[in-house]
Amino acid sequence: MIYSTKSKTPIEILGATPTPQGVSFRVWAPAHKTIDVMIKGRKPFALKKDKDGFFAGFMPHLKADALYRYRINGQDDYPDPCSRFQPQGPHGPSMIINPENFKWHDDDWQSQGIEMKGQVMYELHVGAFSKEGTYAGVEAQLKELKDLGITVIEFMPLADFCGRWNWGYDGVNLFAPAHVYGTPDELRHLIDTAHQLGMGIILDVVYNHFGPDGNYVNCFSPYYFTKKYKNDWGESINFHGEQSHAVRQFFIQNAVYWIKDFHFDGFRLDATQNIYDTSHPHILADISKAARLAAGNKKIIIVAENESQDMRLVAPLEEKGFGLDGMWNDDFHHTAAVALSGRREAYYKDYLGKPQEFISLIKYGFLYQGQYYSWQGKNRGTRVLDKIDASTFISFLENHDQVANSLHGHRMTEKSDAGLVRALTALYLLSPQTPLIFMGQEFASSSPFLFFADHHLKLRVDIFKGRKEFLSQFPSILIQQDQILDPCDEAAFYQSKLNFKERTRNQTTYNLYKDLLKIRREDEVFNRQDRSIIDGDVLADLAFCLRYRTQISDRLMLINLGQDVELESLPFPLLAPLAHKPWKFFWSSEDIRYDGGGVVNAFHKRKLIIPANSLQIYKSGE
């Protein structure tokens, strides 16, 4: 039983719920007269309709693993909109799943959970992560990720989709884990194993649209969608219009389901700027509250992608916020991308990749907090209050979108100077914000990450056309559109798979990530994740410093994103040592362990020398 976020009133669970005596069914279909449960070898079982348009009934002597469909008005049969598993895909019958059959071993974890501070996140696509492309394939790598320093894995969406492969954002069965990756219990086993290793797993969920093929919710009710709002990927969800109460309950129950039945440790909410709701509380606030109630004593984290950078998402519920825990920081990525490539085309045009931007990002979270944003021709963002913890902001150099938003899906190591990549990697992994690593980034994967899907011919043509239109915003790609790989070509999927042998082949990069995450975890200054103790100064056009001040010890970062810098005059107070004791060398991105050019003491006699494309760290003298 689950409960309303507004009261202690129990809410009947949607879908098929097995008990020792049989199975309960519940589905919302307000415009229809009859709904029958259809099971091979059995007579149609009629559900009863209530005043709110819900059909429900209890079918005795029925067990888990049975396949069923719903027959609407005695005519057509459809899968359950709240199906727990679609073993034959979205167009096939639904399967009754009993989550109680799985034996968990994570009782200690379930009483604790995770919070934002102290986390290192790792985004992966289950199908492309391993050669197997399954839940078991991910599980086999958990120990390696743990040893690297990862604390939270973020799965790209798992809601079942049509075809053999898909990014997951075309999901249509929101309660059914994608059948191409394995069974629901195999997913549970993966999560259970992660918890026993001390790692959390959160799920990317898409609550702003449904995929274009295999979506049958409209057959049960036209009220799931609204034409009031424009959406980049399909019809917008009806969260505050006519009959929206049941739509809201559908999505709230979905969030609760993943927490209760799979022990997920939270969510990443996709494209929340396309979730439209004028009611109070906002649907995201209701989802946040319900998910935490479902988690009980366990702490969970809910983070959002929000292009608008609206700080209401992470404001507390009691302050009319949405009560989320974190937000993806596109500003950090875009600034870093310009610094790495030198290109300011399309949505990078409002960024310079210069020192002051990085200093501001470290100190203030977002760059755009209400200023004019020329790419969109309007103001963007809202003010970041001082009380917002640095861990709220999730920084990254790569993610699934940004790697794929290029001509060939190349990684940053394919397009940028190696020293510059090392320096910016160190900057973001040791900054107080929460770092997110995209799969394979930690060993300089040579595998691209391309946009891929597997749909029937008509959709294939439309998707390829849409992909070309999206990438046309980049002038450097527009002139080479004939080089864009068809997303539905199987090569787009198979080329995106990781090769774990590259961990050894690119050992120097792997060393870099392991060492930096160890410093982040163990150093008494960096592990504070406190942006209030940091100040910065621009030393030259492409060089800057960051000083971390504490009562115990200080850390000084010297970052150079350009050619060698040599300064004889040092009118920069942040460079001053404590009590006239010289700075002590701590770490350098140019260490030969990382395939660098060698360590240089920046404080050479009376000069300051910062090597090209490097980041160095010094400790205050004791």
Write structural notes for this entry.
With 622 residues, this protein is of the alpha+beta class. Among the domains are: 2-101, Immunoglobulins (Immunoglobulin-like); 119-331 and 390-417 and 435-462 and 487-519, Glycosidases (TIM Barrel, Alpha-Beta Barrel). Helix content is 25%, strand content 21%. The protein contains 18 helices and 33 strands. The strands form nine sheets. The protein has an eight-stranded parallel β-barrel, surrounded by four helices. Strands 5, 6, 9, 10 and 11 form a five-stranded antiparallel beta sheet that branches. It has a five-stranded antiparallel beta sheet with strand order 26-27-28-33-30, with helices on one face. Strand 3 and strand 4 form a beta hairpin. It is elongated, with a radius of gyration of 26 Å.
In brief, what are we looking at here?
The chain contains 18 helices and 33 strands.
Question: Key terms for this structure?
Answer:
622 residues; alpha+beta; Immunoglobulin-like; TIM Barrel; eight-stranded parallel beta barrel; 25% helix; disordered N terminus
**Would you identify the regions where 5 or more consecutive residues have pLDDT less than 50?**
1-10
Q: Find the CATH superfamily of the domain at 119-331 and 390-417 and 435-462 and 487-519.
A: Glycosidases
Q: How many distinct beta strands?
A: 33
Give the end-to-end Cα distance, rounded to a whole number of Å. Answer: 60 Å
Kindly report the CATH topology of the domain at 119-331 and 390-417 and 435-462 and 487-519.
Answer: TIM Barrel
Described by strand count, sense and barrel closure, the largest sheet is: 8 strands, parallel, barrel
How big is the Rg?
26 Å
On the 0-100 scale, what is the average pLDDT? Answer: 95
Overall structural class, as computed from helix and strand content, comes to: alpha+beta
- Cα shape: elongated
In the CATH hierarchy, the architecture of the domain at 119-331 and 390-417 and 435-462 and 487-519 is: Alpha-Beta Barrel
So what's the CATH class of the domain at 119-331 and 390-417 and 435-462 and 487-519?
Answer: Alpha Beta
Percent range for β-strand residues:
15-25%
Strand order of the main beta sheet, please? 12-13-16-19-20-21-24-25
- Compute the number of helices: 18
Helical content class: 25-40%
